[in-house]
Amino acid sequence: MIKYFPPFRFVFCSLIFLFTIFSIDLNAQKRKIDSMEKLIAVAPNDSARIALMFDGAKFYTDTAQRVRKMKEAYSYAEKCGSVWGQASTQAKIGFYYMFIYVDYPLATYWTTRSLKVSLNHNYNAGVGQAYQQLGIISHVFDDEISAIDYFKKAAAINEKLNLPKSLRTNYSMLGLSYMELHLLDTSLFYYLKAKQVSITNKINPSVLYVNMTNIYIDLNMLDSAERYVKLTDEAYKAAQNEYGEHWVNLLSGEIELKRGNIQRALAFFQEPIDYARKSQNEELLTAVLPPLIKAYKLAGKYKDGFFALEELNNLNDSISGTKSAGKVLAIRKQFEEEQLAEIEKLKQEKNNAAHKAEIKDRNNIIWGGGVLLLLISLFGIIVLRSYRQKKKANHEIMVQKSIIEEKQKEIVDSIHYAKRIQSSILPTEKYMEKKLIELKKTDPK
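Above: the chain's sequence. Below: its structure in token form.
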């Protein structure tokens, strides 16, 4: 038998559950912030502390706190004289004012400050980053001429620094700006350059393919557009991006619409419009509604077309009736990735420099030890050689001495032998004296 479960008890339990989940989430967020603060406090040097302060700002959910923490990181970087720290934090503050507050003057102010610091200290990576961000700000607020100038300057610097991700972004944004000016051939030229950079450096080119497909559709080069739809599908699948399937269907529908296959176009549009409405994805809605309205009109479905047009108008009103917010949605994620990649590259360069210094010191020790060992070996060889030569000379002296002693003995023996012979032949002295006496006696005289 099922017990009666009053509705108010169900509501009460649901509220407790939601409160618990929310509390757990807040506690987890607080733990992350506390851990980051501890890491910042024990950072081994100023560069590490600035990098941790830079990364730690993202853990704050409140945008005002996030900006405040980034300004604290900037103040610390300025205090300790870190050029990359000042440039990166000021650019990030400009990024927040651009993509969170959509405040053009403040975004331009902070990004320009980042550019000045980088230029004054010849910090080329910071110069390229600032030019790129100024280009995005100009593009979002429809100043495409200034945007193109900034993106070209950024591309020239990033090409010299060999920063493929930033260079790909510069080329793709140039393609987008020229597309806004309806200079499709020039736009396609820069998209192809961005594609080449992506392929060379193994960067997923799916977003580029989407824009290139749109250009080919606008140029009525439908076979090329269809080829790039297939490439787009392959790129999204390689990146395991299920969201890309909706863009592939949208592009396929636009190609069929250009070819006059209205029903096929409507069939392709159905899946992305259903997903966009269900998920309230403004970026996809903004892209799919205009061609869908045109397809409804050509199919004679005026009622559906009227409702889609009303939906598009309401959508435009909800994003302040400008293209700016729509562009923000499209650019924000990509730009965040570029900035994080830049910070990661700086960290990697620093680690590489430390590693190279360590290897250099180790090599110096090895070479020094090797030279010392070589000198000791040479000294030992010289001493050993001298000892052997001395030993050899002493041996020769001893041999010569033995020979001389032998010769001397032979000479002495010969002398003694001759003396013995002489003694045996000649009379003795006593005998001679005796004979002389006898002679004297016999001779009267």
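The two ends are 191 Å apart (CA to CA).
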